[in-house]
Amino acid sequence: MIRIVIADDHTIMREGLKRILEGADDIEVVGEAVDGFEALAQVRKGGFDLLMLDLSMPGRSGVELIRQIKDEVPKLPILILTMHEEEQYAVRAIRAGARGYLTKESAGTQLVSAIRKVASGRPYISLEVAEQLAMDAMPSNEDLPHKQLSDREFEVFSLLVGGKSITEIAELLHLSVKTVSTHKTRILHKMGMPSLADLVQYAVAHRLLTPFKM
User: Fold this and answer.
1) Which domain CATH number covers 91?
2) Taking Cα atoms as reference points, which of 179, 165, 150 lies closest to residue 212?
3) Is 210 inside a domain boundary?
């Protein structure tokens, strides 16, 4: 039996995931978390085999949360289930310690197989993510400006070039408007670009721009 904890701040999403898993005799949902703090509490309590984690939740979340969980419980398999389709998000999550990455749009058809694969110790990633991991390992890519961004900065960068306002980003990432504005300033400085328009042009040129569905 694969015992899992679902960490997602949307009740409807958690209920929907549990319905999908009802038909799997070898999978049991033994706990839930609605934010990063509850996810950490579940991890510290233990008693389960796999954590299904949303990237954007209140409190500590995203790649930062993955790293903290792996620091505390290195062997716990983490399957990311998110609305972010960008391969760059998946690459950063995998590098932080996640074993699998699945978009919520794919959950209906791939969730059970993803859980079984990740729980067995094998990775679950798409071909596109695997290719991105390989490309990022090439020396020629190390000097690209967006590679200098922290994980949180890259998250804000992706939302900015995707058309989200600072206020919208603050709501999505559960941050203050001031914090998001600071991130924007640092992103422009690190990437050596004077304006948001330049960031968008860069994102288009490097195929980092895809529509957000949040």
Assistant:
1) 3.40.50.2300
2) 165
3) no
- Per-residue burial over 34-61, b = 16 or more CB atoms within 10 Å of its CB, e = otherwise: bbbebbbebbeeeebbbbbbbbbbeebb
Q: Are residues 154 and 73 in the same domain?
A: no
> Residue 12's closest CA among 20, 22, 4?
20
Residues 53, 123 within the same domain: yes
Which residue, 134, 159, 187, sits at the end of a domain? 134
> What is the DSSP code string of 82-95?
ES---HHHHHHHHH
Q: What is the dihedral of CA 84, 145, 63, 12, to 10 degrees?
A: -20
Distance between CA atoms of residues 120 and 187, nearest Å: 39
Q: How many domains does the chain have?
A: 2
Q: Report the first-to-last Cα separation within the chain, whole angstroms.
A: 33
Summarize pLDDT for 124-179 with one digit per residue, the tens: 987 777 777 777 666 655 578 888 888 889 889 988 998 999 999 998 888 899 99
The identity of residue 60, as a single letter, is R
6, 33 Cβ separation under 8 angstroms: yes
Q: Which distant-in-sequence residues (6+ apart) come within 8 Å of 54 by Cβ?
A: 7, 8, 9, 10, 13, 61, 80, 81, 82
| Ranges 20-24, 59-63, 139-143, most confident | 20-24
d(CA 134, CA 120): 23
